[in-house]
TrEMBL record:
Matches recorded under InterPro entries: ATP-PRT_HisG_long (IPR020621), ATP_PRibTrfase_cat (IPR013820), ATP_PRibTrfase_CS (IPR018198), ATP_PRibTrfase_HisG (IPR001348), HisG_C (IPR013115), N-reg_PII-like_a/b (IPR011322), N-reg_PII/ATP_PRibTrfase_C (IPR015867)
Protein name per its UniProtKB record: ATP phosphoribosyltransferase
Function: Catalyzes the condensation of ATP and 5-phosphoribose 1-diphosphate to form N'-(5'-phosphoribosyl)-ATP (PR-ATP). Has a crucial role in the pathway because the rate of histidine biosynthesis seems to be controlled primarily by regulation of HisG enzymatic activity.
Organism: Marinifilum breve
Gene field: hisG
Family per record: Belongs to the ATP phosphoribosyltransferase family. Long subfamily.
Length: 286
C-alpha cells in the first residue's frame, strides 16, 4: 500500500459537515461510517482522522496528522507551529469582547482592572498586551455568556457569529479581537511523497474555491455597444463574443467575481446589455 496523507477533521460539531463537503467537492470520496475515528478515501491517497477541533493543532504540530481543517481561532489560541495554507470560507466568526448592555463603554481603557471570562485566554492576553491593558482573566470552558449575569465577571471574550447568544444574555459586543474562518493547516515538515499528494489536493481545493467565488455570465448587446461592455467585464482573459441570429447583435460570455457582482451588473445595464444570465461554476481550473 502506498503512502497516504493524513488529514484531521472535526469529529462532531460545527466544522464537520462543511469539511467533508469540501473534500467531496475536490472529488474525494470517504467511507464515512458512523462513530469511526479513522477512515480512508477510496480514490485519493488520503486518510481522515476524526478529532476534536481544539485538539487538532497539537496533533498536526506533532505530525500525527499532516494537515487539518480547523477553525483559525483555535490555531491562534493554541499557539502551535503550523502553516495556514488556505482559508476555506466557512464557519466564519469573530472573537469579541462583550459587556452587559447597560454598561456605559467609552473605549478600551474601560477594561483595565476588570474581570473577563473567556475560553480563549491566550488570544485575549495578546490583545490586552497589544493595547497595554491589564485584566483579571477567568478561564471557563463553556457557557461563557452567562458569566456576567451570575457575578463571575464584568465582561466576556467569546466567539460571535450571528450575535443572538449575546443578545439573549443581555450582552453587547464592544470590541472585535480577531476574525476567524475554517482553514487548511499543515505540519511544517511535510516532504517527499506526502508533499506531492498535498500539492494535488491544493490544486483541487483552489479550483473548488475559485469556482465558489466566481460566476459565469452571458448577455446580449447591440454590436456598437460591445466595446463599452468589454471595458466593464473583467473576465479571465477576455470575453467570448458570438454573433446572434438577430442582425447587429452579439452574445458575450465571461466570468465575474462574486465580490464585484452587483457593481458590474449595474454597469452592464447602463451600457446596453440585455438578457443577462448568471450561472454558477462547478469547478474552475486555474
Ligand atoms: O469539541 P471540539 O473541540 O471539536 O469543538 P468546539 O468546542 O470548538 O466546537 P464547535 O463545533 O462549537 O466550534 C468549532 C468551531 O466553529 C470554532 O472553533 C469556530 O472556529 C467555529 N465557530 C463559528 C463557532 C461559532 N461560529 C460560534 N458561533 N464556534 C462557536 N460558536 C458559539 C460561541 O462560542 C457562542 O456560544 O456560538 C455562540 C455564539 O453564536 P451566535 O450565532 O449566537 O453569535
Amino acid at each position: 500500500m502506498g503512502e497516504k496523507l493524513k488529514i484531521a477533521v472535526q469529529k462532531s460539531g460545527r466544522l464537520k459537515e462543511d469539511s467533508l463537503k469540501i473534500l467531496k467537492e475536490c472529488g474525494i470520496s470517504i467511507d464515512n461510517g458512523k462513530d469511526q475515528l479513522k477512515a480512508s478515501a477510496f480514490n485519493f491517497p488520503l486518510e481522515v482522522l476524526y478529532l476534536r477541533n481544539s485538539d487538532i493543532p497539537q496533533y498536526v504540530e506533532d505530525g500525527v496528522a499532516d494537515i487539518a481543517i480547523v477553525g483559525e481561532n483555535v490555531v491562534i489560541e493554541k499557539q502551535k507551529e503550523l502553516e495556514i495554507l488556505q482559508k476555506l470560507g466557512f464557519s466564519k466568526c469573530r472573537l469579541a469582547m462583550a459587556l452587559p448592555k447597560d454598561v456605559e463603554y467609552n473605549g478600551l481603557e474601560y477594561f483595565n482592572g476588570k474581570r473577563i471570562a473567556t475560553s480563549y485566554p491566550n488570544s485575549l492576553q495578546l490583545f490586552l498586551d497589544e493595547n497595554n491593558l491589564n485584566c483579571d482573566i477567568h478561564v471557563i470552558s463553556g457557557s461563557v455568556e452567562i458569566a456576567p449575569n451570575i457575578g463571575l465577571a464584568d465582561g466576556i471574550c467569546d466567539l460571535v457569529s450571528s450575535g443572538s447568544t449575546l443578545f439573549k444574555n443581555g450582552l453587547r459586543e464592544v470590541e472585535q479581537i480577531l476574525k476567524s474562518e475554517a482553514c487548511l493547516v499543515a505540519n511544517k515538515n511535510i516532504s517527499g511523497i506526502k508533499q506531492a499528494i498535498l500539492d494535488r489536493l491544493m490544486f483541487r481545493l483552489k479550483s473548488v474555491l475559485a469556482a465558489k467565488n466566481n460566476k459565469y455570465i452571458l448577455l446580449n448587446a447591440p454590436n456598437e455597444k460591445v466595446n463599452d461592455i468589454i471595458e466593464v467585464l473583467p473576465g479571465m482573459k477576455s470575453p467570448t463574443i458570438m454573433p446572434l441570429a438577430k442582425e447587429g447583435w452579439s452574445s458575450l460570455h465571461s466570468v465575474i467575481n462574486e465580490n464585484d457582482f452587483w457593481g458590474v451588473i449595474d454597469q452592464l445595464k447602463l451600457n446596453g446589455a440585455e438578457g443577462i444570465l448568471i450561472i454558477p461554476i462547478e469547478k474552475m481550473v486555474l
